[in-house]
């Protein structure tokens, strides 16, 4: 039987485990959702104990349903939703509170206070403007609201980690308390210039360093699983990259200037910025400055842009507005009209999608008597592309690397109209790969290179195959006119609740 690597994506709504062979063929693919808790408006919680149980079940299902021999498993890689908190008792091995998920907004006031105190001065070391995603204020919130957790921390019984840290601690039988450095992006706890935690911010949130996981560089990651936990299997867990880092590797963005964008519920665009830490990026761009990985021997850095609402705007057309019955129909309607008819749709359901204005609200503007639901669909899909263009244009201006194309993945990347419009509005080709499960694939690649299953990143990059390429068709003038319309629509959506 063929040897294989399992890539696990511990995502926000579910756990996916995929087995890949040496040729990157998918041998088996297991997926299950887990419970989402919404105890108050704007709050989102997970049960980390359940996440571990579901992960174990998906590893088992992946091996069994693929008819795979557990002795052929060479390594495991784990990628995860970033920033979500887990605090657990190291004696009982159980999470002591629900996890506060990155999407949770309960720390909004604290984050505003933090930004007033530290921004923009600390943008260069923190790598981002603080957002409610950040883990630091969430840990502080838990310590303030659960005295028994605070006491447990003081008594040295409680450890902290992100979802990857927690899963690896469990799988190693409680021996390894580690994370890959790429998981610290946006946590408000690390100093990008030092590749370490920032003592000033640990003090700000009252977090003792002793509860935090050791930070490990991607190329050094190797932890042995405990066979008593993992169905009798002792195997290296050889990668734990953050989800967007993993997706960029799965898209083989290993050279400076290479970009991937994932169109899921939200969208995440990541640029490989090369070996020099990008500096003097204006914080108004909303870009995150991050470490990419050091798997190509040298540390690489990344710039990341995001929009919280992307494919979910299409879900709203379906479930909220009832304009279509599925996403495919939205694409067909968009294709049925020649242009957007002057209509723009800013899906600022909870503030501007890039987090820059919490007071903005969703806006559809430019409607005339001739506007039809086809124009609405077209405007919603175009919005997915305009948001990417905002981050892309900032990257092109400030990153100092030449960008030749964008590689697309995620649920929305199935949409040919979207990818064509994306190429048009960016002015560079957009490419869709044959394998779109890039997150699991990327972390499998990282683990596989670390254990020598694949020789190096050049070897895995050579496996990337383009399924379809979309060439830009607009003139600079046409592109500018459309972007100007989008920027005008953004102005109308901004500050609505103020
Ligand atoms: P996530 O990992 O965030 O759950 P997925 O990558 O599974 O997301 O993609 C799901 C999202 O993709 C949904 O928001 C859905 O509306 C969107 N989507 C699916 N098909 C299309 C399509 N043809 N056009 C645009 N968006 C789509």
Give the class from helix and strand content and strand pairing.
alpha+beta
Gross morphology: globular
Number of beta strands = 24
Question: Could you say which small molecules are bound to this protein?
Answer: adenosine-5'-diphosphate
Query: On the 0-100 scale, what is the average pLDDT?
Result: 93
How would you sum up the major sheet?
7 strands, mixed
Radius of gyration: 22 Å
| Spatial strand order of the main sheet | 18-19-17-16-22-23-24
End-to-end separation = 63 Å
Strand content: 15-25%
Report on this model:
The protein is α+β, with helices and mostly antiparallel strands. Helix content is 34%, strand content 21%. It contains 15 helices and 24 strands. A seven-stranded mixed sheet has the order 18-19-17-16-22-23-24. Helix 4 packs across helix 5 (147-154), helix 8 (243-250) packs across helix 13 (438-450) and helix 9 runs antiparallel to helix 11 (373-398). The protein is globular and about 65 Å long. The site of adenosine-5'-diphosphate has 16 residues, from helix 9 and helix 10.
Write the layout of secondary structure elements.
Layout: E1 4-10, E2 14-20, E3 26-33, E4 45-46, H1 48-65, E5 73-80, E6 86-89, E7 94-95, E8 99-100, H2 108-118, H3 123-126, H4 135-145, H5 147-154, E9 158-161, H6 163-171, E10 178-180, E11 190-191, E12 196-197, H7 199-205, E13 214-216, E14 223-224, E15 236-239, H8 243-250, E16 259-263, E17 267-274, E18 288-291, E19 301-307, H9 311-320, H10 327-335, E20 344-346, E21 363-365, H11 373-398, E22 406-409, H12 416-426, E23 430-433, H13 438-450, H14 457-461, E24 466-470, H15 476-493
Parallel strand pairs: 1-5, 5-15, 10-13, 16-22, 22-23
Antiparallel strand pairs: 1-2, 2-3, 4-8, 6-7, 6-9, 11-12, 14-15, 16-17, 17-19, 18-19, 20-21, 23-24
Helix pairs in contact: 1-6, 4-5, 8-13, 9-11, 10-11, 11-12
The structure holds adenosine-5'-diphosphate.
